[in-house]
Amino acid sequence: MSIRLAAILALGAWLILTVPAATSAAPAPPTPFASLVEVYLDGFGRFHPSIAAGNGLHAHDGELEDFSAPSVAAEIKWLHAIRARLDAIAEATLSADERVDRRILQGVVDGWLLDLETIKNWSRNPMIYVAAISDGLHNLATMDAAPAETRMRQAISKMHAIPRLLESARRNIQLPPRVFVENAIGMLGGVEELLSRDLQLAFAGAGDAALRQQLAAAAREAARSIVEYRRELETRGLAAASDDFAIGTAAVEARYRAEELIDLPAARLLAIGERELARNQAEFTRTAARIDATRTPIQVWGELVRHHPARGELVAAAAAQVDELFAFVAAKNLLVMPASEHIVVALAPAYDIGMASMHSSPAARGAAGAKLLLHHGRRPGLAARAAECLARIVQLRDACRHHRARSRARTLRA
After folding, report:
1. Diameter of the chain measured on Cα atoms
2. What is the pLDDT of residue 329?
3. pTM of the predicted model, to two decimals?
4. C-alpha to C-alpha distance for 217 and 223, rounded to whole angstroms
């Protein structure tokens, strides 16, 4: 699977780690499907530049999402055209991998069409407007996809477009769920801090004095728009909010079919979820009893969560865990990492703490230094994929441990 297609999956709520094989041969001309993938990724970047940038696609970094009614209609029309082109590719022209990839991309497109045409989140969820601002600016502050001066100009361009985006939110959003409004209000507080503090810290010393002044002026103006919209949500937004946030059984089933390729009725999915919940609760209770049978499971859990690295020891503890995970990879011969590739665990810079706080629940105010960054020595964009890989390795390691424990238990019973 190509790196470009991996980006599609990330855009569709999947993250896949892909490592291209080194080769000295000249690249083959792109297949019709591969060419369509490129068209899709560029078009997606135009409609969703902040999401695209977060997944390594930076062609539209200086732009901000346009959620106006004409733009939403244009995206829907474009997605239908992409879907038709995917369907029109002859099966015989696709490789085995491309047949799988096409089915996945069809699901990604169907998921976006469901969101835009049926669920219409753009007309009910103020959080997507706030996230476009926060994610877009945060990406520019933290990703070295371009020189700092270029990213500063891109940030200025984005901030100049914030009033237009918020005006679309005012026009589009009708009867929003109360929980969406409440969360958006909290997120807007984080954006205010991002504009007033974090951007200046991120670009301190970058560019010349005139460019830094332009950045600060654009941030002040954008902050005024953010504060105004937050106050509107706190008054008129909450007053007009609804307690109903459900999207309906049919939409849930359609989303699973599109985004997860799971074609099961909602009742069956609920039964599976309840079954697994009960199984995990029972396992949780048994494990807690093995730790301390005199306490309730919740009491045992409460004691365990208090065990964490002391202040000043977090980076070393996290680095040790990364080393342990890679030792597990090596011991199980899961993959061979080139010697030049390595992950560095470091404290997040001061300007990156606010983003973690804005999205945490409850807000992690005062937790400066608690967020970690995974960096890579040479290849930009690998950090996110490496983090996902580590998460998958943790799951695999734990699954192996669980399997060994069950095997020992069966042996003892025998």
Report:
1. 78
2. 85
3. 0.75
4. 10
